[in-house]
Design goal:
The chain has 45 residues and is mainly alpha-helical. The protein has 1 helix and no strands. Keywords: Membrane, Transmembrane, Transmembrane helix.
């Protein structure tokens, strides 16, 4: 593999990792928001 190809692979891996991190963070925020909403609504046990 040439250095140019390695750089391309690294850039793609980095962009995929960033997308996955953003999606994971959004999921965590969604679950947190739903939990807070349920607590404020006084969800019955």
């Amino acid at each position: 593999m040439t250095p140019d190809e390695q750089d391309l692979v690294r850039r793609r891996q980095r962009s995929r990792a960033i997308v996955m991190a953003v999606l994971l963070f959004a999921f965590v925020l969604l679950v947190f928001g739903i939990s807070i909403a349920k607590i404020q609504a006084g969800m019955p046990h």
